[in-house]
Amino acid sequence: VDYTLRRAVSKMAELNPETIIQLLKQQKSIINGGKTGSLEFRLQQLQALKRSVQQHEREIIQALHQDLRKPEFEAYSTEIGYLYDSIGYVMKNLHKWMKPDRVRNPLVHFGSRSYIYSEPYGSTLIIGPFNYPFMLVMDPLVGAIAAGNCAVIKPSEYTPHVSAVISKLISECFDESYVRVIQGGQETTSTLLQAPFDMVFFTGSVRVGKIVMKAAAEHLTPVVLELGGKSPCIVDKNVNLDVAAQRIVWGKYLNTGQTCVAPDYVLVHKDVRAQLIAKMKEYIISFYGTDSQLSPDYGRIVNHAHWQRLNGLLEGAVVAAGGQTDREDLYIAPTLLDGVNWSDKVMEDEIFGPILPVLEYHNLDQVIEAVNSRPKPLALYLFTNDKQIEQRIMSTVSFGGGCVNDTIMHLVSPYLPFGGVGSSGMGAYHGRHSFDAFSHKKSVLNRPTRINPSFLFPPYNAKKLGL
Ligand code: NAD
Protein backbone atom coordinates (compact mmCIF):
# COMPACT_ATOMS: atom_id res chain seq x y z
CA VAL A 1 0.00 0.00 0.00
CA ASP A 2 2.70 2.47 0.93
CA TYR A 3 4.49 1.75 -2.35
CA THR A 4 1.37 2.64 -4.36
CA LEU A 5 0.85 5.80 -2.36
CA ARG A 6 4.45 6.78 -2.81
CA ARG A 7 4.19 6.30 -6.57
CA ALA A 8 1.02 8.39 -6.58
CA VAL A 9 2.73 11.22 -4.70
CA SER A 10 5.73 11.09 -7.03
CA LYS A 11 3.56 11.18 -10.13
CA MET A 12 1.22 13.84 -8.82
CA ALA A 13 4.08 16.17 -8.21
CA GLU A 14 6.14 15.76 -11.34
CA LEU A 15 7.62 19.18 -11.48
CA ASN A 16 7.99 21.45 -14.43
CA PRO A 17 11.32 23.32 -14.07
CA GLU A 18 9.59 26.48 -15.35
CA THR A 19 7.21 26.39 -12.34
CA ILE A 20 10.09 26.55 -9.95
CA ILE A 21 11.86 29.34 -11.88
CA GLN A 22 8.65 31.40 -11.72
CA LEU A 23 8.33 30.70 -8.01
CA LEU A 24 11.92 31.82 -7.38
CA LYS A 25 11.22 35.04 -9.27
CA GLN A 26 8.20 35.70 -7.04
CA GLN A 27 10.24 34.96 -3.94
CA LYS A 28 12.99 37.30 -5.08
CA SER A 29 10.53 40.14 -5.50
CA ILE A 30 9.12 39.47 -2.01
CA ILE A 31 12.60 39.59 -0.50
CA ASN A 32 13.69 42.62 -2.51
CA GLY A 33 10.46 44.41 -1.61
CA GLY A 34 11.56 44.13 2.00
CA LYS A 35 8.37 42.32 3.04
CA THR A 36 10.12 39.60 5.04
CA GLY A 37 12.54 42.04 6.64
CA SER A 38 10.65 43.37 9.64
CA LEU A 39 10.52 41.79 13.05
CA GLU A 40 6.72 42.19 13.08
CA PHE A 41 6.28 40.25 9.84
CA ARG A 42 8.49 37.40 10.98
CA LEU A 43 6.75 37.15 14.36
CA GLN A 44 3.34 37.17 12.69
CA GLN A 45 4.35 34.31 10.39
CA LEU A 46 5.75 32.26 13.25
CA GLN A 47 2.59 32.85 15.25
CA ALA A 48 0.47 31.87 12.25
CA LEU A 49 2.51 28.70 11.83
CA LYS A 50 2.02 27.77 15.46
CA ARG A 51 -1.72 28.40 15.25
CA SER A 52 -2.03 26.33 12.12
CA VAL A 53 -0.15 23.41 13.69
CA GLN A 54 -2.42 23.66 16.73
CA GLN A 55 -5.48 23.51 14.49
CA HIS A 56 -4.17 20.42 12.69
CA GLU A 57 -2.70 18.61 15.70
CA ARG A 58 -5.05 15.63 15.47
CA GLU A 59 -4.45 15.19 11.74
CA ILE A 60 -0.69 15.30 12.21
CA ILE A 61 -0.81 12.68 14.95
CA GLN A 62 -3.09 10.50 12.85
CA ALA A 63 -0.88 10.82 9.76
CA LEU A 64 2.22 9.91 11.79
CA HIS A 65 0.35 6.82 12.96
CA GLN A 66 -0.63 5.89 9.41
CA ASP A 67 2.89 6.31 8.02
CA LEU A 68 5.03 5.03 10.90
CA ARG A 69 2.58 3.75 13.52
CA LYS A 70 4.06 6.41 15.78
CA PRO A 71 2.63 6.21 19.31
CA GLU A 72 0.62 9.34 20.13
CA PHE A 73 2.89 10.35 23.01
CA GLU A 74 5.99 10.14 20.79
CA ALA A 75 4.24 11.91 17.92
CA TYR A 76 3.27 14.77 20.19
CA SER A 77 6.49 15.10 22.17
CA THR A 78 9.08 14.61 19.41
CA GLU A 79 7.31 16.30 16.50
CA ILE A 80 4.66 18.75 17.73
CA GLY A 81 5.48 19.77 21.32
CA TYR A 82 9.11 20.13 20.33
CA LEU A 83 8.10 22.50 17.51
CA TYR A 84 6.00 24.68 19.83
CA ASP A 85 8.99 25.01 22.15
CA SER A 86 11.21 25.90 19.23
CA ILE A 87 8.80 28.55 17.90
CA GLY A 88 8.33 29.99 21.41
CA TYR A 89 12.06 30.28 22.00
CA VAL A 90 12.73 31.90 18.63
CA MET A 91 9.85 34.39 19.03
CA LYS A 92 11.12 35.42 22.44
CA ASN A 93 14.67 36.08 21.29
CA LEU A 94 14.37 37.14 17.65
CA HIS A 95 14.46 40.90 18.34
CA LYS A 96 17.93 40.47 19.89
CA TRP A 97 19.29 38.26 17.11
CA MET A 98 18.10 40.57 14.36
CA LYS A 99 19.99 43.59 15.70
CA PRO A 100 23.25 44.26 13.89
CA ASP A 101 26.04 43.03 16.09
CA ARG A 102 28.50 45.86 16.89
CA VAL A 103 32.06 44.52 17.22
CA ARG A 104 35.44 45.98 18.23
CA ASN A 105 38.01 47.52 15.88
CA PRO A 106 41.71 46.92 15.47
CA LEU A 107 43.95 49.98 15.98
CA VAL A 108 44.20 50.61 12.25
CA HIS A 109 40.43 51.29 12.20
CA PHE A 110 40.57 53.78 15.05
CA GLY A 111 37.42 55.91 15.19
CA SER A 112 35.37 53.53 12.99
CA ARG A 113 32.27 51.50 13.76
CA SER A 114 32.06 47.84 12.75
CA TYR A 115 28.85 45.82 12.47
CA ILE A 116 27.79 42.32 11.53
CA TYR A 117 24.40 42.34 9.86
CA SER A 118 22.37 39.13 9.63
CA GLU A 119 20.63 39.18 6.28
CA PRO A 120 18.36 36.52 4.79
CA TYR A 121 19.82 34.35 2.05
CA GLY A 122 16.59 34.72 0.05
CA SER A 123 14.93 31.60 -1.37
CA THR A 124 15.67 28.53 0.69
CA LEU A 125 14.98 24.90 -0.13
CA ILE A 126 14.23 22.54 2.77
CA ILE A 127 14.36 18.81 1.98
CA GLY A 128 13.22 16.38 4.66
CA PRO A 129 13.59 12.67 5.54
CA PHE A 130 10.92 10.14 6.54
CA ASN A 131 11.77 9.45 10.18
CA TYR A 132 10.51 12.63 11.89
CA PRO A 133 8.77 13.75 8.74
CA PHE A 134 6.89 16.65 10.29
CA MET A 135 9.41 18.16 12.69
CA LEU A 136 12.42 17.83 10.38
CA VAL A 137 10.94 20.16 7.78
CA MET A 138 9.00 22.42 10.17
CA ASP A 139 11.86 23.18 12.55
CA PRO A 140 14.20 24.28 9.73
CA LEU A 141 11.27 26.36 8.41
CA VAL A 142 11.15 28.17 11.76
CA GLY A 143 14.81 29.12 11.24
CA ALA A 144 14.16 30.17 7.63
CA ILE A 145 11.23 32.43 8.58
CA ALA A 146 13.03 33.86 11.62
CA ALA A 147 15.97 34.86 9.44
CA GLY A 148 13.64 36.53 6.91
CA ASN A 149 13.77 34.02 4.05
CA CYS A 150 11.21 32.55 1.70
CA ALA A 151 11.06 28.75 1.57
CA VAL A 152 10.17 25.75 -0.54
CA ILE A 153 9.62 22.56 1.42
CA LYS A 154 10.07 19.08 -0.07
CA PRO A 155 8.87 16.54 2.49
CA SER A 156 9.62 12.80 2.26
CA GLU A 157 7.66 10.74 -0.24
CA TYR A 158 7.92 7.75 2.14
CA THR A 159 5.45 9.36 4.54
CA PRO A 160 2.66 10.47 2.16
CA HIS A 161 0.01 11.05 4.82
CA VAL A 162 2.26 13.40 6.77
CA SER A 163 3.38 15.15 3.57
CA ALA A 164 -0.26 15.76 2.65
CA VAL A 165 -0.99 17.35 6.04
CA ILE A 166 2.13 19.52 5.79
CA SER A 167 1.05 20.67 2.35
CA LYS A 168 -2.46 21.53 3.54
CA LEU A 169 -1.29 23.28 6.69
CA ILE A 170 1.30 25.40 4.89
CA SER A 171 -1.04 26.41 2.07
CA GLU A 172 -3.66 27.51 4.60
CA CYS A 173 -1.14 29.44 6.60
CA PHE A 174 1.09 31.21 4.07
CA ASP A 175 0.94 32.97 0.75
CA GLU A 176 2.15 30.32 -1.70
CA SER A 177 4.81 32.55 -3.16
CA TYR A 178 6.28 32.98 0.35
CA VAL A 179 6.33 29.41 1.67
CA ARG A 180 5.33 26.55 -0.57
CA VAL A 181 5.31 22.76 -0.28
CA ILE A 182 6.25 20.70 -3.29
CA GLN A 183 5.59 17.00 -2.90
CA GLY A 184 7.31 14.28 -4.84
CA GLY A 185 10.13 11.78 -4.93
CA GLN A 186 13.62 11.61 -6.30
CA GLU A 187 12.81 13.20 -9.69
CA THR A 188 11.09 16.14 -8.05
CA THR A 189 14.02 16.72 -5.72
CA SER A 190 16.42 16.52 -8.65
CA THR A 191 14.43 19.15 -10.54
CA LEU A 192 14.33 21.39 -7.47
CA LEU A 193 18.06 21.01 -7.02
CA GLN A 194 18.72 22.29 -10.52
CA ALA A 195 17.14 25.63 -9.65
CA PRO A 196 19.30 28.47 -8.31
CA PHE A 197 18.13 28.56 -4.68
CA ASP A 198 20.06 30.85 -2.34
CA MET A 199 20.48 28.14 0.28
CA VAL A 200 19.63 24.45 0.68
CA PHE A 201 18.90 22.80 4.01
CA PHE A 202 18.94 19.02 3.61
CA THR A 203 18.22 16.34 6.19
CA GLY A 204 18.71 12.74 5.08
CA SER A 205 21.23 10.08 4.22
CA VAL A 206 24.92 10.51 3.50
CA ARG A 207 24.38 9.12 -0.01
CA VAL A 208 21.77 11.72 -0.96
CA GLY A 209 23.68 14.42 0.93
CA LYS A 210 26.46 14.04 -1.62
CA ILE A 211 23.98 14.35 -4.50
CA VAL A 212 22.57 17.53 -2.93
CA MET A 213 26.00 19.07 -2.43
CA LYS A 214 27.08 18.30 -6.00
CA ALA A 215 23.92 19.88 -7.38
CA ALA A 216 24.32 22.93 -5.14
CA ALA A 217 27.91 23.38 -6.30
CA GLU A 218 26.60 24.16 -9.79
CA HIS A 219 25.13 27.45 -8.49
CA LEU A 220 27.59 27.83 -5.60
CA THR A 221 24.59 27.54 -3.31
CA PRO A 222 25.49 27.18 0.39
CA VAL A 223 24.22 24.00 2.03
CA VAL A 224 23.48 22.75 5.49
CA LEU A 225 23.62 18.96 5.48
CA GLU A 226 22.10 17.10 8.41
CA LEU A 227 23.13 13.53 7.67
CA GLY A 228 23.55 10.26 9.52
CA GLY A 229 26.00 7.45 10.18
CA LYS A 230 26.87 5.00 12.91
CA SER A 231 26.65 6.67 16.34
CA PRO A 232 28.53 4.75 19.04
CA CYS A 233 27.40 4.32 22.62
CA ILE A 234 30.30 3.60 24.97
CA VAL A 235 29.63 2.03 28.36
CA ASP A 236 32.44 2.09 30.89
CA LYS A 237 32.56 -0.32 33.85
CA ASN A 238 32.45 2.56 36.32
CA VAL A 239 28.83 3.48 35.72
CA ASN A 240 25.29 3.27 37.00
CA LEU A 241 24.40 0.29 34.81
CA ASP A 242 20.71 0.41 35.52
CA VAL A 243 20.34 4.02 34.38
CA ALA A 244 22.61 3.34 31.40
CA ALA A 245 20.49 0.36 30.27
CA GLN A 246 17.26 2.34 30.66
CA ARG A 247 18.48 5.36 28.70
CA ILE A 248 20.09 3.31 25.93
CA VAL A 249 16.96 1.18 25.43
CA TRP A 250 14.81 4.31 25.31
CA GLY A 251 17.09 6.12 22.84
CA LYS A 252 17.48 3.10 20.59
CA TYR A 253 13.88 1.93 20.26
CA LEU A 254 12.25 5.37 20.16
CA ASN A 255 10.61 5.60 16.72
CA THR A 256 11.63 1.94 16.21
CA GLY A 257 15.30 2.86 15.93
CA GLN A 258 14.61 5.19 12.99
CA THR A 259 16.29 8.16 14.65
CA CYS A 260 19.38 9.79 13.15
CA VAL A 261 20.98 10.15 16.59
CA ALA A 262 19.92 6.74 17.94
CA PRO A 263 22.79 4.75 19.46
CA ASP A 264 23.77 2.61 16.48
CA TYR A 265 25.88 0.16 18.47
CA VAL A 266 27.11 -0.35 22.03
CA LEU A 267 30.77 -0.66 22.99
CA VAL A 268 30.79 -2.00 26.53
CA HIS A 269 33.65 -2.79 28.90
CA LYS A 270 34.10 -6.59 29.07
CA ASP A 271 33.53 -6.68 32.86
CA VAL A 272 29.96 -5.39 32.57
CA ARG A 273 28.83 -6.71 29.17
CA ALA A 274 26.66 -9.56 30.47
CA GLN A 275 25.09 -7.38 33.16
CA LEU A 276 24.32 -4.58 30.70
CA ILE A 277 22.67 -6.98 28.27
CA ALA A 278 20.58 -8.52 31.07
CA LYS A 279 19.44 -5.08 32.21
CA MET A 280 18.65 -3.90 28.68
CA LYS A 281 16.47 -7.00 28.22
CA GLU A 282 14.59 -6.11 31.40
CA TYR A 283 13.97 -2.58 30.15
CA ILE A 284 12.77 -3.77 26.76
CA ILE A 285 10.13 -5.83 28.56
CA SER A 286 9.25 -3.09 31.02
CA PHE A 287 8.80 -0.55 28.17
CA TYR A 288 7.08 -2.69 25.54
CA GLY A 289 5.85 -5.84 27.35
CA THR A 290 6.78 -9.43 26.55
CA ASP A 291 5.30 -9.09 23.04
CA SER A 292 6.19 -5.67 21.65
CA GLN A 293 4.09 -6.32 18.53
CA LEU A 294 1.06 -5.78 20.75
CA SER A 295 2.42 -2.67 22.42
CA PRO A 296 0.73 0.66 21.52
CA ASP A 297 4.04 2.31 22.40
CA TYR A 298 6.11 0.61 19.73
CA GLY A 299 6.17 1.72 16.09
CA ARG A 300 6.79 0.07 12.73
CA ILE A 301 9.40 0.21 9.96
CA VAL A 302 8.54 2.81 7.32
CA ASN A 303 8.28 0.45 4.31
CA HIS A 304 9.06 -2.99 2.93
CA ALA A 305 12.40 -2.03 1.42
CA HIS A 306 13.72 -0.90 4.81
CA TRP A 307 12.12 -3.90 6.54
CA GLN A 308 13.87 -6.21 4.08
CA ARG A 309 17.20 -4.48 4.60
CA LEU A 310 16.91 -4.75 8.40
CA ASN A 311 15.77 -8.35 8.22
CA GLY A 312 18.94 -9.12 6.26
CA LEU A 313 21.05 -7.82 9.15
CA LEU A 314 19.60 -10.51 11.41
CA GLU A 315 20.75 -13.41 9.23
CA GLY A 316 23.33 -15.48 11.09
CA ALA A 317 23.43 -13.06 14.03
CA VAL A 318 23.57 -14.06 17.71
CA VAL A 319 20.28 -12.72 19.02
CA ALA A 320 20.36 -11.90 22.74
CA ALA A 321 16.84 -10.43 22.80
CA GLY A 322 14.02 -9.97 20.28
CA GLY A 323 14.73 -11.03 16.72
CA GLN A 324 11.06 -11.65 15.81
CA THR A 325 9.86 -10.10 12.54
CA ASP A 326 6.58 -9.88 10.61
CA ARG A 327 6.78 -8.66 7.03
CA GLU A 328 3.08 -7.90 6.54
CA ASP A 329 3.03 -5.80 9.70
CA LEU A 330 6.41 -4.14 8.95
CA TYR A 331 7.35 -5.26 12.45
CA ILE A 332 10.79 -5.94 13.85
CA ALA A 333 11.06 -6.59 17.60
CA PRO A 334 13.44 -4.55 19.77
CA THR A 335 16.53 -6.66 19.17
CA LEU A 336 19.90 -7.01 20.91
CA LEU A 337 22.78 -8.75 19.14
CA ASP A 338 25.62 -10.26 21.14
CA GLY A 339 29.03 -11.59 20.05
CA VAL A 340 29.26 -9.03 17.25
CA ASN A 341 32.53 -8.37 15.40
CA TRP A 342 33.59 -5.26 13.52
CA SER A 343 33.62 -7.28 10.29
CA ASP A 344 29.93 -8.26 10.61
CA LYS A 345 27.45 -6.86 8.11
CA VAL A 346 25.55 -5.05 10.85
CA MET A 347 28.67 -2.95 11.51
CA GLU A 348 29.02 -1.73 7.91
CA ASP A 349 26.33 0.96 7.55
CA GLU A 350 23.98 2.96 9.73
CA ILE A 351 21.36 0.49 11.03
CA PHE A 352 18.41 2.90 11.28
CA GLY A 353 16.13 0.31 12.86
CA PRO A 354 15.53 -1.52 16.17
CA ILE A 355 18.65 -3.71 16.08
CA LEU A 356 21.36 -2.98 18.63
CA PRO A 357 24.71 -4.78 18.28
CA VAL A 358 26.77 -5.06 21.45
CA LEU A 359 30.57 -5.28 21.19
CA GLU A 360 32.90 -5.59 24.16
CA TYR A 361 36.20 -3.81 24.70
CA HIS A 362 39.14 -4.35 27.03
CA ASN A 363 40.62 -0.88 27.22
CA LEU A 364 39.80 2.65 26.16
CA ASP A 365 42.55 2.78 23.53
CA GLN A 366 40.68 0.14 21.53
CA VAL A 367 37.52 2.23 21.68
CA ILE A 368 39.24 5.42 20.54
CA GLU A 369 41.07 3.63 17.76
CA ALA A 370 37.88 1.89 16.55
CA VAL A 371 35.73 5.02 16.48
CA ASN A 372 38.44 7.27 15.03
CA SER A 373 39.20 4.87 12.20
CA ARG A 374 35.60 5.18 10.93
CA PRO A 375 33.61 8.11 9.50
CA LYS A 376 32.98 10.81 12.09
CA PRO A 377 29.70 10.01 13.87
CA LEU A 378 26.69 12.32 14.14
CA ALA A 379 26.33 11.45 17.82
CA LEU A 380 28.38 9.77 20.51
CA TYR A 381 27.15 8.65 23.91
CA LEU A 382 29.42 7.89 26.81
CA PHE A 383 28.23 6.28 30.03
CA THR A 384 30.79 6.70 32.79
CA ASN A 385 31.32 8.21 36.22
CA ASP A 386 35.04 8.58 35.53
CA LYS A 387 35.99 12.18 34.77
CA GLN A 388 39.31 11.17 33.22
CA ILE A 389 37.63 8.84 30.76
CA GLU A 390 35.14 11.57 29.90
CA GLN A 391 37.99 14.03 29.31
CA ARG A 392 39.90 11.59 27.19
CA ILE A 393 36.96 10.79 24.89
CA MET A 394 36.06 14.47 24.54
CA SER A 395 39.59 15.45 23.63
CA THR A 396 40.40 12.59 21.24
CA VAL A 397 37.19 11.69 19.38
CA SER A 398 35.45 13.91 16.83
CA PHE A 399 31.65 13.67 16.55
CA GLY A 400 28.69 15.97 15.81
CA GLY A 401 27.33 16.14 19.36
CA GLY A 402 26.21 13.82 22.11
CA CYS A 403 25.68 13.14 25.79
CA VAL A 404 27.52 11.87 28.81
CA ASN A 405 25.25 9.47 30.69
CA ASP A 406 22.27 9.89 28.39
CA THR A 407 21.16 9.42 24.78
CA ILE A 408 19.35 11.73 22.31
CA MET A 409 18.58 14.46 24.84
CA HIS A 410 21.27 16.90 23.65
CA LEU A 411 19.17 17.77 20.64
CA VAL A 412 16.34 19.08 22.80
CA SER A 413 18.38 22.07 24.00
CA PRO A 414 18.03 25.31 22.00
CA TYR A 415 21.40 26.38 23.45
CA LEU A 416 23.32 23.52 21.82
CA PRO A 417 24.00 23.69 18.06
CA PHE A 418 22.84 20.46 16.45
CA GLY A 419 24.69 19.08 13.43
CA GLY A 420 27.27 16.64 12.17
CA VAL A 421 30.94 16.75 11.26
CA GLY A 422 32.77 15.06 8.38
CA SER A 423 30.44 12.64 6.65
CA SER A 424 27.70 13.09 9.29
CA GLY A 425 27.05 16.58 7.96
CA MET A 426 27.97 20.23 7.93
CA GLY A 427 26.39 23.27 9.51
CA ALA A 428 24.18 23.24 12.59
CA TYR A 429 20.83 24.55 13.81
CA HIS A 430 18.42 24.82 16.80
CA GLY A 431 17.72 27.99 18.76
CA ARG A 432 19.94 30.89 17.76
CA HIS A 433 21.94 28.52 15.56
CA SER A 434 18.87 28.06 13.32
CA PHE A 435 18.69 31.82 12.81
CA ASP A 436 22.41 31.89 12.03
CA ALA A 437 22.22 28.89 9.69
CA PHE A 438 19.66 30.73 7.53
CA SER A 439 21.46 34.11 7.63
CA HIS A 440 24.35 35.53 5.72
CA LYS A 441 26.65 37.46 8.06
CA LYS A 442 27.38 40.73 6.32
CA SER A 443 30.39 42.58 7.74
CA VAL A 444 30.39 46.35 7.43
CA LEU A 445 33.06 48.83 8.44
CA ASN A 446 31.90 52.42 8.75
CA ARG A 447 34.91 54.81 8.71
CA PRO A 448 34.92 58.46 9.73
CA THR A 449 36.13 60.92 7.08
CA ARG A 450 37.53 63.43 9.57
CA ILE A 451 40.58 61.26 10.22
CA ASN A 452 42.25 60.36 6.92
CA PRO A 453 45.81 59.08 7.29
CA SER A 454 47.62 59.19 3.96
CA PHE A 455 50.32 56.57 4.60
CA LEU A 456 48.23 53.84 2.90
CA PHE A 457 48.08 55.51 -0.46
CA PRO A 458 50.66 55.51 -3.29
CA PRO A 459 53.22 56.63 -4.12
CA TYR A 460 54.94 54.28 -1.70
CA ASN A 461 58.08 56.33 -1.38
CA ALA A 462 61.06 55.66 0.84
CA LYS A 463 59.82 58.04 3.55
CA LYS A 464 56.62 56.01 4.00
CA LEU A 465 58.61 52.84 4.32
CA GLY A 466 60.72 54.53 7.01
CA LEU A 467 63.91 54.18 4.95
P1 NAD B 1 17.07 9.96 2.13
O1 NAD B 1 18.40 10.57 1.97
O2 NAD B 1 16.77 8.69 1.44
O3 NAD B 1 15.92 10.98 1.70
C1 NAD B 1 15.89 12.33 2.15
C2 NAD B 1 15.25 13.18 1.06
O4 NAD B 1 16.05 13.11 -0.11
C3 NAD B 1 13.85 12.77 0.68
O5 NAD B 1 13.03 13.92 0.67
C4 NAD B 1 14.00 12.16 -0.69
O6 NAD B 1 12.91 12.45 -1.53
C5 NAD B 1 15.24 12.83 -1.25
N1 NAD B 1 15.98 11.95 -2.17
C6 NAD B 1 16.13 10.60 -2.08
N2 NAD B 1 16.92 10.15 -3.07
C7 NAD B 1 17.26 11.21 -3.82
C8 NAD B 1 18.07 11.40 -4.99
N3 NAD B 1 18.67 10.38 -5.59
N4 NAD B 1 18.21 12.65 -5.48
C9 NAD B 1 17.62 13.70 -4.87
N5 NAD B 1 16.84 13.58 -3.77
C10 NAD B 1 16.66 12.36 -3.24
O7 NAD B 1 16.87 9.80 3.73
P2 NAD B 1 15.71 9.05 4.53
O8 NAD B 1 15.84 7.59 4.27
O9 NAD B 1 14.40 9.71 4.33
O10 NAD B 1 16.18 9.36 6.02
C11 NAD B 1 17.07 8.57 6.71
C12 NAD B 1 18.47 9.18 6.75
O11 NAD B 1 18.42 10.51 7.18
C13 NAD B 1 19.37 8.46 7.75
O12 NAD B 1 20.65 8.34 7.21
C14 NAD B 1 19.38 9.41 8.94
O13 NAD B 1 20.52 9.28 9.76
C15 NAD B 1 19.31 10.73 8.27
N6 NAD B 1 18.75 11.72 9.17
C16 NAD B 1 19.56 12.70 9.65
C17 NAD B 1 19.05 13.63 10.55
C18 NAD B 1 19.89 14.72 11.13
O14 NAD B 1 19.33 15.63 11.71
N7 NAD B 1 21.19 14.70 11.00
C19 NAD B 1 17.70 13.55 10.93
C20 NAD B 1 16.92 12.54 10.40
C21 NAD B 1 17.45 11.63 9.52
Give a summary of the structure in a few sentences.
The protein has 467 residues and is α/β, with parallel strands linked by helices.
Overview of this structure, please?
42% of the residues lie in helices and 17% in strands. The chain has 467 residues and is an alpha/beta fold. Helix 9 links the parallel strand 6 and strand 7 (223-226). It is globular. It starts with a helix and ends in a 21-residue tail after the last strand. Mean pLDDT is 95; it is low at 8-13. Bound molecules: nicotinamide-adenine-dinucleotide. Nicotinamide-adenine-dinucleotide (NAD) binds at residues 127-131, 136, 154, 156-158, 185-186, 189-190, 203-205, 208, 211, 226-228, 260, 350, 352, 378, 420, 425. InterPro entries: Ald_DH/histidinol_DH, Ald_DH_C, Ald_DH_CS_CYS, Ald_DH_CS_GLU, Ald_DH_N, Aldehyde_DH_dom, Aldehyde_DH_NAD(P). One of its GO terms (cellular component) is cytoplasm. Keywords: Coiled coil, NAD, Oxidoreductase. This is Aldehyde dehydrogenase. One of its GO terms (biological process) is aldehyde metabolic process.
Overview features:
467 residues; alpha/beta; six-stranded mixed β-sheet; 15 helices; binds nicotinamide-adenine-dinucleotide; Ald_DH_C; coiled coil; oxidoreductase; Ald_DH/histidinol_DH
Q: Say which molecules are bound, naming each kind only once.
A: nicotinamide-adenine-dinucleotide
Number of strands: 18
How much helicity do the residues have?
40-55%
* Strand order, largest beta sheet: 10-13-14-9-8-15-16
How many angstroms separate the termini? 84 Å
Q: So what's the overall shape?
A: globular
Number of helices: 15
Enumerate the spans where pLDDT stays under 50 for 5 or more consecutive residues: 8-13
Class computed from helices, strands and strand pairing: alpha/beta
Major sheet details: 7 strands, mixed
Radius of gyration: 25 Å
- Please state the average pLDDT score: 95
Strand content: 15-25%
InterPro entries: Ald_DH/histidinol_DH, Ald_DH_C, Ald_DH_CS_CYS, Ald_DH_CS_GLU, Ald_DH_N, Aldehyde_DH_dom, Aldehyde_DH_NAD(P)
Active site: 226, 260
Coiled coil: 39-66
Family: Belongs to the aldehyde dehydrogenase family.
